């Protein structure tokens, strides 16, 4: 069994937290993905959710226990690698690409 420090877990979540997300807005029969700022609580929820989801995927591929897969994903997130970090970077890239649609925001 592997134990992690709290600071390692906090830093892993901090490295995965998304700053922007895409919201779908329907305007004139067309659906646009509009970038929106994510609240602090939602950032933490999404980061933890992504880490757990990637650990579950890793468990399905391997015969390791879930706890080992979760520790592996947390360490990957701490080192700024792994599936959750890639997901965050992809989402940020798409949000930057779609920033022309920010005029459709009304919230």
Q: SSE order in H/E notation? A: HEEHHH
User: How many discrete structural domains?
Assistant: 1
Termini distance? 46 Å
Give the number of DSSP strands.
2
Radius of gyration: 16 Å
Placed side by side, the strands forming the largest sheet appear as 1-2
- Number of helices, where a helix is a run of at least 4 consecutive DSSP H or I residues: 4
pLDDT averaged residue by residue: 93
Which segments are poorly predicted (pLDDT under 50) over 5 or more consecutive residues?
Answer: none
Decide which structural class fits the backbone: alpha+beta
- Might you state the CATH topology name? Ribosomal Protein S7
Name the beta content range. Answer: 5-15%
Per CATH, which architecture? Orthogonal Bundle
Shape: elongated
**CATH C-level class:** Mainly Alpha
The percentage helix is 55-70%
CATH superfamily: Ribosomal protein S7/S5
Question: What does the largest sheet look like?
Answer: 2 strands, antiparallel
Describe the SSE topology.
Elements (H helix, E strand, L loop, with lengths): L5 H11 L3 E8 L2 E8 L2 H22 L4 H13 L4 H15 L10
Antiparallel strand pairs: 1-2
């Amino acid at each position: 069994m592997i134990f992690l420090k709290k600071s390692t877990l906090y830093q892993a979540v901090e490295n995965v937290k998304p700053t922007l997300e895409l919201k779908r807005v329907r305007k004139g029969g067309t659906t646009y993905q509009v970038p929106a700022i994510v609240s602090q609580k939602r950032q933490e929820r999404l980061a933890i959710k992504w880490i757990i989801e990637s650990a579950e995927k890793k468990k399905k591929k391997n015969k390791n226990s879930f706890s080992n897969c979760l520790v592996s994903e947390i360490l990957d997130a701490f080192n700024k690698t792994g599936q959750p970090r890639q997901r965050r970077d992809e989402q940020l890239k798409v949000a930057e690409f779609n920033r022309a649609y920010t005029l459709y925001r009304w919230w």
